[in-house]
Amino acid sequence: xxxxxxxxxxxxxxxxxxxxxxxxxxxxxxxxxxxxxxxxxxxxxxxxxxxxxxxxxxxxxxxxxxxxxxxxxxxxxxxxxxxxxxxxxxxxxxxxxxxxxxxxxxxxxxxxxxxxxxxxxxxxxxxxxxxxxxxxxxxxxxxxxxxxxxxxxxxxxxxxxxxxxxxxxxxxxxxxxxxxxxxxxxxxxxxxxxxxxxxxxxxxxxxxxxxxxxxxxxxxxxxxxxxxxxxxxxxxxxxxxxxxxxxxxxxxxxxxxxxxxxxxxxxxxxxxxxxxxxxxxxxxxxxxxxxxxxxxxxxxxxxxxxxxxxxxxxxxxxxxxxxxxxxxxxxxxxxxxxx
Amino acid sequence: xxxxxxxxxxxxxxxxxxxxxxxxxxxxxxxxxxxxxxxxxxxxxxxxxxxxxxxxxxxxxxxxxxxxxxxxxxxxxxxxxxxxxxxxxxxxxxxxxxxxxxxxxxxxxxxxxxxxxxxxxxxxxxxxxxxxxxxxxxxxxxxxxxxxxxxxxxxxxxxxxxxxxxxxxxxxxxxxxxxxxxxxxxxxxxxxxxxxxxxxxxxxxxxxxxxxxxxxxxxxxxxxxxxxxxxxxxxxxxxxxxxxxxxxxxxxxxxxxxxxxxxxxxxxxx
Lengths: 339, 270
Known about the structure:
Oligomer: heterodimer
Number of domains of chain A: 1
Distance between the termini of chain A: 33 Å
Structural class of chain A: mainly beta
Order of helices and strands of chain A: HEEEEEHEEEEEEEEEEE
Shape of chain B: globular
Strand order of the largest sheet of chain A: 1-2-3-4-5-6-7-8-9-10-11-12-13-14-15-16
Radius of gyration of chain A: 21 Å
CATH topology of chain A: Porin
Helix content of chain B: 25-40%
Number of strands of chain B: 11
Number of strands of chain A: 16
């Protein structure tokens, strides 16, 4: 029933969006095979549609744009009995060029969460961004955000006020205190990006309740030089007295521009300590793989590509065996603009 | 460790293979307005240097700039200035955007040859393209509906027209959006009550150019700024030009290159 209701809303939005000046319709699908192993024991082996995004981007005029995205996916739990799940991913209006000299936009609705690497994480590895995987920050949330680009492309900044629950658990933990989030990225020289984000929220239900402070910060660095694109992130999250922290390094070698093979070779190393007070709960992940761009569109953006990743997790707890996950994913994108 | 060694070795081999023969190939992608200039200069350059292969592609200014940001073209051709957001994306990817102005151009309002109207104002144009004026009799012409033709959204010509004429107002939904200057010119020539706009280099005998605010679109009026619908045309590169690309840019800006700009129907820099 929920599914049908969402479909009706979707069709309604499609129809409505056609009244805009132009509407971009986009679909992105992730067909995945996953093999999970613990030592030599196979724990899981399955095919799935991990994500199926349908996006509408109506442009009412140069100063007003919108984005609406639904995520359809293969469901593996009892909440979705029809074999497919559905989530609302984006639903916002962008008031563009609010302060034209400062390249400032205002986004309102279910918007991007401008924190760490999560808002521009392009899934170069099949695995999620560190803050997403460790549930420090969700990729989207309900709220309002002032976004700007520094003159001559020297960087960007965002100031956001959000619910703080994220899009997956929206309205489950609403209180009177919003989340405040600030993000800055600077590009002092072409190819060198540094940035940082900070978020703060009191999750107490009532002003008189004991404060339950949730906060997090992230430091981000990126070096792009020749075929190397190197990403690094340090992340720390605090909820009341519990502190978790970790970091990620990800070198990506784009060999497409120097060879006939349009491919990226990806390596990634993650370290995560879920609770600094606890012992033996930290783990490390090592990922290696490649992204093969099978087809690009007329703007040379990849529209069909194959991702293959092998990931091994090592635990500090010596009683736990290392686990391996092999994922093979075919991502394909369709888009068209109705004028 | 063995894997890393193998990876580095593979990358070195692939680099060596790809470097062989690469110096003599130049790829240009982007604006359909700049296309005739790029094609003409490339043809002459290749005849002078037979070992150089220049591939020239259209698609629109936006496509050219995206191709440059994706590392898929050596030169992006554009009939609009690059945006701050595009520069930011470039800087993130280690691309230092170098802008080179190569010519000037006027956007000319054209109508069918049999249309008696010969002048239009920017305000009237805005009203036509936003759907406020729909009949030629409001402009001193016959009682005939106006067929409004525009360039498509990926076009730099459209971006400049939108900025100067529409001033970012919403364009009428009845506008026919076409993918090239040639398509606009050809449709206007065969549609009695049509109006469209094209780059100066696309004026043919089959269409009638209008004066804008009583100013004739010409090299002189574009250069001295009295013709308001004018713009610069650009090459965008990743960093300072080097090697064959530097030679090609120098040739484009040379007296011979600028003569070819003029032959293509556009306005040379000097």
